[in-house]
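Hey team,

Filing this mostly as a record. A colleague (T.K.) asked me to run one chain through the structure pipeline before their review meeting, and I want the input and output archived in the tracker in case anyone asks later how it was produced. No errors, nothing strange. Just documentation.

Input sequence:
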Amino acid sequence: MLATSTQSSNSHQPVIDEPREIKPYRLAYELRPGYLYVLFRSDTASYEIIRQYWSEIIVMATSTRCKKLLIDKDISVESSMVDAFRVASEIAVEFKSVKVAICDRKTPLDALEFDELVATNRGLNTRSFRELAAAEAWLMQEV
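Output structure:
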């Protein structure tokens, strides 16, 4: 069940993800001024896991009608390049009108650049960052 808090308009509005099943990852959502923040944590990564969490993010982004999305990734083990390519190709179609910033402090830089290249080549407006502040600054820039 999804719920939003009734905090004042100046503060962040958390959206709670109450898991219906045991998952190998955790997603938490927060409506922030101008964008949807998503915290993703996992100790493992495979095509199935990545595709499942992106499917959940797509549902949340659609239901909140967000046009800007910040994904804060905390993954202990990264997926293969083949899985990353496949997922990046698939999600680019889903997020054509959404600006996506990804903060990933652990993935090797060459893998981050590869993911970004695949997604941008398929029309996704995305950038990858190591620092959350830099990701947020880019996300909030007006074109």
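Quick notes for T.K.: The helical segments are 47-64, 81-94, 109-121, 132-140. The chain is about 40% helix and 30% strand.
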